[in-house]
Design a protein that fits this description.
alpha/beta, Aminopeptidase, Alpha-Beta Plaits, 6-stranded mixed beta sheet, 10 helices, 16 strands, elongated
């Protein structure tokens, strides 16, 4: 399977590189079609192609038959610019495999593909049909794929997400929700030397707003806001007429997300004559650990114990496509990909000895859910 992972890694697929993401989806679709899957591609001119592969392993009369499909989810896009591979090629060192996008999440894509192929080739059966969904735009918010994900989720009894685990192999039964905002401040330009008093500095106003946003952070509630990008002004001798900021919001409950969204939209200028515009809102709802998710985890832990390892669970601040699914009331297990570290970092890698464990666990989950 390591060669299959390498095959995926060496097909660079930076998010928003439409042609690259179309190509890798088509190549993977060809591999999956060879196993008898029914394959569809959903194309977008900006993002590329999202892949859906249907596997009919179901046998009428088995437990769970007829009450919804099992949805297996991942994404093919990465954060790495095209050309990164030439500087950091795939390599194996000290029991680890390195490469751009290998941990997040091409190893997970390989595990999902392998598990479905293994069930088919071994003649195994399940109580329900299985749909494999690999999106092309997860790293930029799944703006294209969200509708496809939610349509499949509504037909599903449960979902397994092959995002990377928390380092150490811990799977994710909770994720914070995500909000994205753009803050636009408009003032009035003036000559900084001759007429500073008639100017209204959008940058000064933005500084006031950043401080106001920072006051919304509440670590006890799990609420964070980060003003990650700020731009404004044209020259140092011109009072800035406009400034813009990008704000990331994370929250644990829908109610908290809505509360902070209202606060963002009700920001008021501190300087007379300044104007504020707030765009954006909640992008991903939170993945809240429900009783059904807890039960699903216990089942996975029992299966992991059967194959000789202890499976743990945790909650993280980052979102995934699993958030959209859980918000529809479908139980989700996330972080079922291969153990490793370094998502979005140059030391990104997976632990090779974990590959067969995760592949076996996913295969058993598909067979038993």
């Amino acid at each position: 399977m390591l060669e299959f992972i390498r095959w995926l890694v060496e097909q660079e697929s930076m998010t928003r590189e439409a042609e690259a993401n179309r190509r890798i989806a088509e190549n993977l679709a060809g591999r999956l079609a060879e196993t008898g899957a029914t394959v569809d591609l959903f194309n977008h001119p900006r993002y590329g192609s999202t892949l859906r592969a249907g596997f009919d392993f179901a046998v009428p009369g088995l437990p769970g038959e007829g009450v919804g499909q099992l949805l297996v989810v991942g994404h093919l896009d990465t954060v790495w610019p095209l050309g990164t591979l030439s500087a950091r090629p795939f390599r194996v060192e000290d029991g680890r495999a390195f490469g751009p996008g290998i941990f997040d999440m091409k190893a997970g894509v390989a595990v999902a593909s392998f598990a479905c192929r293994a069930i088919k080739e071994m003649g195994r059966t399940t109580g329900r049909a299985v749909t494999l969904l690999m999106t092309c735009d997860e790293e930029t918010g799944s703006h294209f794929s969200r509708e496809i994900i939610e349509d499949e989720a509504r037909r599903s009894r449960a979902a397994l997400v092959l995002e990377p685990p928390i380092p150490g192999g811990t799977i994710k039964t909770g994720r914070k929700g995500v909000g994205e905002f753009e803050l636009i401040v408009r003032g009035r330009s003036a000559h900084a030397g001759n007429d500073p008093r008639i100017g209204i500095s959008a940058i000064t106003e933005m500084a006031h707003q950043i401080l106001a946003i920072n006051k919304m952070v509440d670590y006890e509630r799990g609420t964070t806001l980060n003003v990650g990008v700020v731009k404004g002004g044209v020259l140092s001798n011109v009072v800035a007429a406009e400034a813009r900021a990008s704000v990331d919001m994370r929250f644990q409950t829908v109610e908290e997300g809505e509360r902070i969204t209202d606060m963002m939209r009700n920001l008021r200028p501190a300087l007379d004559g300044a104007r504020i515009e707030v765009r954006g809102g909640i992008n991903r709802p939170p993945l809240v650990r429900t009783a059904e998710i807890a039960s699903l985890f216990e089942h996975a832990r029992d299966l992991a114990s059967e194959i000789g390892y202890d499976l743990r669970e945790g909650s993280v601040g980052g979102g995934s496509d699993g958030n959209f699914i859980a918000a529809l009331g479908v139980p989700v297990l996330d972080g079922l990909g291969v153990d490793g570290a370094g998502a979005h970092a140059e030391h990104e890698h997976i632990i090779i000895e974990d590959i067969p464990r995760r592949a076996t666990l996913l295969t058993r989950l598909i067979e038993t859910l």
